[in-house]
Amino acid sequence: MVLKMVAVFFMSAAFGVLYRIPGRLVAAASLVGVAAWLTVMLIKSIGGSLIMANFAGSVIIGLGAETLARRLKQPAAVFIIPGFIPLVPGGEAYTTMLYMVEGHYVEGVSMFMRTVLTAGAIAFGIFISSTIYRLLINYNTERKMHNAGKD
């Protein structure tokens, strides 16, 4: 498990470098990917579906990215992109194409739907968590400003 975590860290870091994330932020962005991957593994280990696990992992990505973006004064995308790389269903997409090429159309369509749902769960999880985080931050900021005006 530790070896896999290290591999996920370096995989996320490699994509961070590939996408030219500033060097001082690569480690933090990679930790977002590790946290998301650990969440996926935890959900799957307790019997959760792959789609639900990826949704939960992507929520972690969104929350982690928004938090780091605020603290480090960077765009959230700097942390989201390397963060979601470990969750990308590349193996499933490959299997989908393999089934189709081999003429196993029923299995191919089934795997295609699973791949699309997994990718959709990742996108939706990041969207929802980032949106809710920003709404809460804006609400708290407005509340503090309103309360400061009463003093």
UniProtKB/TrEMBL annotation:
Domain Threonine/Serine exporter ThrE: 5-132
Transmembrane segments annotated in the record for this chain: 37-64, 76-100, 112-136
Key words, A-Z: Cell inner membrane, Cell membrane, Membrane, Transmembrane, Transmembrane helix
A GO CC annotation given for this chain: plasma membrane
UniProt cross-references to InterPro entries, sorted A to Z: ThrE_2 (IPR024528), ThrE_Dicarb/AminoAcid_Exp (IPR050539)
Location relative to the cell: Cell membrane
GO annotation terms (biological process): succinate transport
Main location (coarse class): membrane
Membrane topology according to the record: Multi-pass membrane protein
Protein family per UniProt: Belongs to the ThrE exporter (TC 2.A.79) family.
UniProt protein name: Uncharacterized membrane protein YjjB, DUF3815 family
Upper taxonomic lineage: Bacteria, Bacillati, Bacillota, Negativicutes, Selenomonadales
